[in-house]
Design brief:
Layout lengths: L3 H14 L4 E2 L12 E4 L6 E3 L3 E9 L9 E9 L2 E4 L12 E3 L15 E9 L7 E10 L2 E12 L1
Parallel strand pairs: 3-10
Antiparallel strand pairs: 1-10, 2-4, 4-8, 5-6, 5-9, 7-8, 9-10
Family: Belongs to the NPC2 family.
InterPro entries: Ig_E-set, ML_dom, NPC2-like
Protein name: NPC intracellular cholesterol transporter 2
């Protein structure tokens, strides 16, 4: 039997690793914040340091079989201006998907199976030092699978 202290310790570590994100308008995804980890960021606004790579893990369970899944990653920089994150927006995630126990998976993804999408993306030195709202979605041809937004600051 596992001592209660060990269970509580692992629960606290898991909670500390999650990033506090908001659902995209019109989405209803239970426990979304518990399933997104931006590293290193647990509490917005996330600091996106120029010249580094930002890591992300998204845990998701598709409601239907999916042949292809792509990222939609943009930054709302204010005044109605939305720009894509270079090098990650519009790309397939199929080679960066794992099963819940860490085994490599690939598309097609099966309905009802929980997957982990793990990736990193560059914060280029050419990006301006500003506040942004990062909009991140995983989508197929018929729409969003999961979607979140998080305030950030490029520094």
């Amino acid at each position: 039997m596992v001592p209660l202290r060990v269970v509580v310790c692992f629960a606290l570590l898991a909670a500390a690793a999650a990033t506090d994100v908001k659902q995209c308008p019109g989405m209803d995804i239970p426990d979304l914040s518990e399933n997104v980890q931006l590293s290193p960021c647990t509490k917005p606004p996330c600091r996106l340091k120029k010249g580094t790579n930002q890591s992300i893990t998204i845990k998701f369970t598709p409601g239907k079989d999916l042949d292809e899944v792509k990222n939609g990653v943009t930054a709302d920089i204010g005044n109605g201006l939305v720009v894509p994150f270079i090098g990650v927006d519009g790309y397939s995630i199929c080679d960066k998907v794992f099963t819940e126990n860490g085994d490599k998976a690939s598309c097609p993804l099966k309905s009802g199976t929980t997957y982990l999408y793990k990736d990193s993306f560059p914060i280029y030195a050419i990006y301006p030092s500003i506040k942004v709202k990062v909009h991140w979605e995983l989508k197929d041809n018929s729409g969003d699978i999961t979607c979140f937004e998080v305030p950030a600051r490029i520094v």
